[in-house]
Amino acid sequence: MFGAENVISQRHLRNAQGKIVGLVDDAIKLGKIKGPRILDLVVKTKDGWKGIEVTSKTAFKVAQSAKEEIIRAAGGGFVRHPVTKDLIELSDDISRIIRLN
Q1: What pLDDT digit, counting tens, does each position of 70-92 carry?
Q2: How far is CA 89 from CA 7, 46, 58, 62, 77, in A?
Q3: How many angstroms separate the CA atoms of 62 and 2, rounded?
Q4: How far apart, in whole angstroms, are the C-alpha atoms of residue 2 and residue 92?
Q5: Torsion of Cα atoms, 35 then 16 then 68 then 38, to 10°
Q6: Is the dihedral angle over the CA atoms 25, 30, 34, 35 positive or is it negative?
Q7: Is 100:31 a contact under the CB 8 Å cutoff?
Q8: Can you tell me the distance from the alpha carbon of 8 to that of 15, in angstroms, rounded to the nearest whole number?
Q9: CB-CB neighbours of 4 under 10 Å
């Protein structure tokens, strides 16, 4: 559907300088720290790059989505491409959650 070149997996949210952005005890932290948000998949669509979370039908994702929203609002709206190492700016939406059986 999207093509292998348009799907990357397991990417940390980063800021515009490429630093990993995390949330630790309600405080934003930079660098290799506890509390980062790792997106399952990042997919290039006609509207830009978007995060996707794949989970079970019963998994509770409210806290995870809230954490992502806080990190994104603090500048963590980028991921690093695993091959080119370029920073990719994500669309403004938080990750779409897809629930599977």
Answers
A1: 999 989 999 999 999 999 999 98
A2: 14, 14, 30, 23, 6
A3: 27
A4: 20
A5: -60
A6: positive
A7: no
A8: 18
A9: 6
Pair of tokens at residue 31: 């660098």
Place of tokens 């990190």: 71
pTM for this prediction: 0.85
What would the pLDDT profile of 32-75 be if each residue is shown by its tens digit? 666 788 999 999 999 999 999 999 999 998 988 988 999 999 89
Residue 29 phi/psi, 5-degree rounding, is -130, 150
Which residue type, as a one-letter code, is found at position 84? Answer: T
State both tokens at 12.
């940390």
